[in-house]
Amino acid sequence: TRGAVATGDGEDVTDLAHAGVWGLVRVAQTENPGRIVLVDRDTDTLDPRHVSPDVPQAAVRGTTVLTPQLARSTAKDTQTPPRWDGGTVLVTGATGALGGFLARHLVTRHDARHLLLLSRRGIDAPGARELHDELTALGADVTFAACDAADRDALTAVLAGIPDDRPLTAVVHTAGVLDDTVLTDLTPQRLAKVLQPKVDAAWNLHELTKDRDLTAFVLYSSIAGLIGNAGQANYAAGNTFLDALAQHRRAHGLPATSLAWGLWAEASTISGGLDETDLRRLARLGLLPLSSDDAMDLFDAAPTTGEAVLAVTRLDTAVLRRQADRLPAVLRALAPTAPRRTAAAAGTGSGGEGGPSLAERLGALPEEQRTEVLTDLVRTQVAAVLGHADQGAVDAERAFQEMGFDSLTAVELRNQLNAATGLRLPSTLVFDYPNPAALAAYLRRQITVEEVSAATPVLSDLDRLKDSIQSVAAADREALQQITGRLRELLDLADATAGESGADDDRDLDTATDEELFALLDDLD
Q1: How far is the C-alpha of 111 from the C-alpha of 91, rounded, in Å?
Q2: Largest Cα–Cα distance of the chain, in whole Å?
Q3: Around 12, how many Cα atoms within 13 Å sit in the side-chain half-sphere?
Q4: Distance (Å, rounded) from C-alpha 299 to C-alpha 367?
Q5: C-alpha span between 343 and 378 (Å, rounded)
Q6: Per its record, what are the GO molecular function terms (predicted)?
Q7: Nearest residue to 172 via CA among 211, 221, 133, 139
Q8: 20 to 30 A Cα–Cα from 195, which one of 17, 226, 291, 511?
Q9: What values do phi and psi take at 106, rounded to 5?
């Protein structure tokens, strides 16, 4: 893209249409890890040196490559929060859970007196009359309007009806719907269903109010657009457009804040459709639910940061650190980690930092045990995706569909197995191979195993031991003596196991010098 993202304060988003593409492609990256690089440029051409699979998302400005990262934001003394008690405050999606929380908050916390609450059904929407009566009893003048803000003519008529003695002073756009599916199943109709209440409505609100004297223009976005949550390509696209619109307005001197909400504890249009599997998936990303009270406190704090776009969420940084190498690009700065050893060939997924790869571990096993190890690997990952405590709850012969797998959990399992094996697996795994046993057999056919002797892993350990001993020898002679004693015990054990007498060895270990012991280790190379 070109000009679809802003990289700093005051930079304009000149291509709003493609801003949504960033959200959609972020989801494509999540669903197809390691295959897509997303770059925004500021020139007609792109230097290939600025594209790297190790940097999945970047903005190139001149010769500088910038990456999107979340960072903690704090209040600034120079920022003044908006006033909500002056004129009329317009709230879209007002009969949804988030709109209702906000309306109550504006009245009780900020003494808002004039609310114009929009929803498609107006006062006839479920809960609307109760909300109207509640807010009226608190002293507010409340008007419900049956208006789809995505309908420009209808919105124009509603805005024209605002009295001159209480002019429009603030807009909060909370409306939104979900229609989750993996990208390969996304149709134009499902895309439009989600984009219209987000994108069309936000653009209409911007266009029809940009000449009014507003103190606040707040867009309810979602962190899904920043992290590229699997199965939410349409929703992510809509929300990255809102983020870009806020930056565009700021660049033109207009008030705007886009709040990319994380998970809410209370059910809402956003969180109400999430099942237990969805919640576990988000928890594995370190996302913790916000109570409505905490959310409203953060709503109040957001304008004082001076930022156009804010991710408003609770994060479990310990969870982030445990899986830093699998995090969405935007979260990685919050969980720094040492570079991970990358797989050099198919089937070389890492077995842990400094440990043998999966292919190496399989190579040291007889064939029947290789299949068993891979079956256990699949069962372990299935258990993690479905939220079971361990693999014991997963029957290797039970069909994935009977376990409750759908297109979203299938993508998550594929991503977990990609990381564990180093392979690039299709997202249709659970549909192509009916159960964990069949999937393990498929993995065995895909992983190239180099036959090795049983001594190979031991020799690898000895190589690492040699390096460690040399480091200790230079720093701590006393520790070296302790290590030397243990090495003599190990060599005696090796001789005894082989039926040889350590006492008859012409290089008597009891009298061997340190240099002679090192020479013995060298002989094992």
Answers
A1: 15
A2: 107
A3: 7
A4: 59
A5: 19
A6: fatty acid synthase activity; phosphopantetheine binding
A7: 221
A8: 291
A9: -65, -35
User: pLDDT of 240-290, one tens digit each?
Assistant: 999 999 999 999 999 999 999 999 887 554 554 566 666 777 777 788 899
Rounded-to-integer distance, Cα 262 and Cα 94, Å = 19
Average pLDDT over residues 312-332: 84
Domain end, chosen from 390, 421, 446, is at: 446
Q: Are strands 88-92 and 168-173 parallel, antiparallel or unpaired?
A: parallel
> If pLDDT is split at 50, 70 and 90, which confidence band does 355 have?
low
Strand 168-173 with 216-222, pairing:
parallel
Round to whole Å and give the CA distance between 507 and 525: 18
Write out the two tokens for 311. Answer: 């991710």
**pTM for this prediction:** 0.78
Mean pLDDT value across the chain: 86
- Pick the residue with more confidence: 352 or 321? 321
Residue ranges of E strands in 107-242: 114-119, 141-146, 168-173, 216-222
Express each pLDDT in 113-144 by its tens digit. Answer: 999 999 999 999 999 999 999 999 999 999 99
In this structure, how many other beta carbons lie within 10 angstroms of the beta carbon of residue 86?
A: 16
Cα–Cα distance for residue pair 204/308, rounded to 1 Å:
19
Q: How many helices (H) and strands (E) does the chain have?
A: 20, 12
Radius of gyration of the chain (CA): 30
How much is the pLDDT for 121? 93
Same domain (yes/no): 434, 363? yes
Dihedral sign (CA 264, 265, 266, 267): positive
Task: Looking at the structure, tell me whether residues 438 and 474 fall in a common domain.
Answer: no
- Which residue, among 40, 19, 59, 2, has the nearest Cα to 198 in the 3D structure? 19
Final residue belonging to a domain, choices 382, 411, 446: 446
**In residues, how long is the chain?**
525
